[in-house]
Amino acid sequence: MNIATKRWLPHTISAVALLVLLYPLAWLLATSLKPADEVMTSLDLWPSHLEWSNYTTALDRVSGVTVTRLLGNTVLIAGGAVLGNVLSCSLAAYAFARLRFRMSKVMFAFMVATLMLPHHVVLIPQYIIFNRLGLVDSYWPLILPKFLATEAFFVFLIVQFMRGLPRELEESARIDGCGPFRTYWSITLPLARPALITTAIFTFIWTWNDFFTQMIYLFAPEKYTITLALSSFVDLSSTSAYGPMFAMSVISVLPIVLFFFVFQRYLVQGMATSGLKG
């Protein structure tokens, strides 16, 4: 194998892998512009003619609610989840990584063990609690748990990052009279920005794409998110509007793609440093 082949072979393999990974997105975009009779019958990637009415139908109203309202509801839930996870998980991670207290190792091990619990195990007890509190059919069950550091994965991620930070900075702050909270807020939190941004990105994407939990707690159409609205295009008793459904899917994917491209360098930095330090 000559030098030129060795140089271009990895790039060629990467390009082919990229095309395979991007094909579902290309298929989604092309299908959103297909006529109704081609969505399920034609295997061609490119439609015979562009059906822009799919987007018109999708942008009109879904279950009597405008797309702007649906996007606003989704942004509200995702934004609250991001804020809650970043604050609560960073506080819990700072306690595990920097503070010494009784049974800290046991509690940390118990917290990590909760990663193996399926989400459905705690769903019923949580629903009973929120139902008795009268919070069902509201956004509180989707946002409030995020402020209680219930996401063990993000706590573990930030702990691993904080353990790699130099302790000399915190010791200097302690000598200057800073308490634990002031040290956390002024010293540790700014240094842990890559891990916090990684937490924010994953939380935003997972919350935006969440369907099951939102379906459990939200009943009123005016409180629906963009994910719940997609299900209204599929009717088991009549013809399903697949064209507008795929058009709505494209609209729902765009904020995630933009969010990821804006913060992707922080995502790579946070994942790399969290895995190597600690």
From TrEMBL:
It comes from the Bacteria. Residues 71-263 form the ABC transmembrane type-1 domain. Keywords: Cell membrane, Membrane, Transmembrane, Transmembrane helix, Transport. This is Carbohydrate ABC transporter permease. The keyword DNA-binding does not apply. The chain crosses the membrane at residues 12-30, 75-96, 108-130, 142-162, 183-208, 241-263. Its main location: membrane. It is a multi-pass membrane protein.
